[in-house]
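Appendix B.2, paired examples.
Example (i):
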Amino acid sequence: MDITKKIIALTISGILVLLAATAAIFLYGGGDLTGDQGATDDDGINAIDTANDDSTDSTDDTDGTAAAHSSEDGVNATIELGTEVMVNGSTISTDPSSAVYLSTSSLGYSMVNIAMAGTYTISGTAEDLQVRIVAGTGDEIVLVLNGTSISCDSAPAILVQSAFDPLEANNSGVIIRLAEGTTNVIDGSHSDDNDAALSSNVSLLFDGDGALEITADMEGIETFVHLTINGGTLTITSDEDAINANEDGVSIITINGGTVYADGSGGTDGDGIDSNGYLIINGGVVYGLASGENSGIDSDLGTIINGGTVFATGIMNDGVSASSEQTVISFSFPSTLSEDTSVYVLDSSGDPVVAFRTLNRCSTFVYSSPELVSGTVFKVYVGGSISGTFDDYGLCTSFTVTGSGTLQTSSTRM
């Protein structure tokens, strides 16, 4: 779709330049404002819209309507992992001409190979095993995770080696569906050709109402083309990038719904979410945590936030595109904050907006929510005392300030 360009300009008395004495804060967002609202407080930042600019920071197929192919006419199989792998109630075949067959890698781990178009439902527990899709380039696959735990300590636990790929953003020939009410666990490693615990050479699409927990010694989820997330709760903890789409200038990560916890802070060098093309967030709840000199959300061609709740921390501030349709707070601190530092944001009326506690070193954060109003003055404080309930990733959206922190911004007319 054509994304309407909306640039929120930082303004003080109509001058579109801001010098922060101690830090820089940038806001982009939706909501058409026709007049210059001006700064209302010398210690705050005000944001206004300049609609319909002619910049080209957009991409096709970003309207949140995924068009993944189905596999209703293919094989329908249930795979039960355990001491013995069962397929449709019988012992798995070792015949490579079968739709599902068992083999052994050169490193000694077992491989459950899926070779034909269809829907494959996997449950049960297996160690030292890889589920590998080796279908034809015209074969569409639905992989239903129905309460399974798979670990592989020398390669990806799930590897999509080959299958159909439409090569279109927001579209995929391989769907990973998380069965409702289930929790699925992937503990994987990497190989010479694939860096992630769940790795795909083709585009991937996640949907469903279940949960997926991934632990990785390098990257968590990797695709070589596009990635779409429509549903489910994905929790990824990795030593490098938690989520990565790595085709330079091509890949598009689209998040339309679900909940994504992308924690790349397990090691010393990882982004939360990293796209070598675009990152487009249309809905859902998205967390991105980074380690090293990295960003919670990172993209080479632009990060566009049109909806949902987004929270990310890191050292590098990769920025958010001005074409975003939802208001975004993107903030850089004057110095790096240590772990377990309290930060909170108030609006011009002194009402709470958001608070968080740093889980690791960071010097930037990004926050976006449908509740943020463009044109509002936001003030950022470090330290002080906060009363409220913080979630597992340090975020709190309902709180009271019981002891004032240090205001991080002041503004000067230029």
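Example (ii):
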Amino acid sequence: MHTEIIRTEAAWETLSGEWNDLLAESISDVPFLRYEYLRAWWQHRGGGEWPQAELCIITGRDTNGKLLGLAPFFTTSNSPGQPCIMLLGGIEISDYLDLIVPLPRLESFLDTVLTHMLGPDAPEWGCWDWYNVMQSSPTLAALEKAAPEHNLDFSQAVDQPAPYVMLPDNIDDYLADLDRKYRNEFRRKMRNAAGFFLPLSWHIVEEKDKLDSELEAFSTLMSQDRHKERFLTDDMRAQMGAIAHALFDSGMLQLAFLKAGNDYAAAYFNIDYRNRIWVYNSGMDYKFAQLSPGIVLAGYLLMDAIEKGREMVDFMRGDEEYKYQLGGKDKYVMHAVLKKKKA
């Protein structure tokens, strides 16, 4: 396998025609590894999360030039100030990350990457510091196996839960699977919504010329939460906008709103990809708190997903209560570290 390190954006752009084709065959076909998502992420460095960062994408090709594997890396310094290798997309806003390689080639590709990154042409690094690798990813076992072969130490730890719910064929079966308490609460909130004193409506943004104004409305709802208000710096607003446009242009954006009369009451920024709905972020207007607008809109979106035959709603990272009220079951994302052994 021939390897090459991509260090410039211009060189990265040459991979645009191959990147997503390889991802479709890879061990972790998730929206956060799509070419257009990561290009938008890199343009704003995760909303200003990584102002000091350099590209270090490693490609593996066969003798005919066919792309066999991608290691979407960047180099930076971690919190202790140690030079490290991180996965593009990490840490704050990309829920699932990984290598991009089909399972049969994973071990050989990882071995090739490690050999290259321990060679004389590699950038300086003291560790590989990887966040948001799914617990189910075979990359974790491959890293653990490869580490002693390359005189490295490997460790992993659970980082966060990432709840999900599998969707049945109809809403009645979905409700039957909920805990009785949550089922009753869900039905009560949907009944209250039906009798709310203002007319309710919901929609998914489908017109490109309305996207920016709807994104502004979404940011306004998000910023009513104090934590999210701090999160939404100017850099992060620009980052979220770039990601939204990239997803919209690829047909993956599900930006949904619930309106009470003429007012926006709640919104979800979701990704519709590979027959799954990925719940990326949300916001609500607290003056409608008695309506439980987030749950109501989630109910409409769940019914819509079931009608469209989606197989899963992935609530992604975080243990917010509403995820479990809607039937979420935990899976986990991991923090994986490779370190050079001390001499």
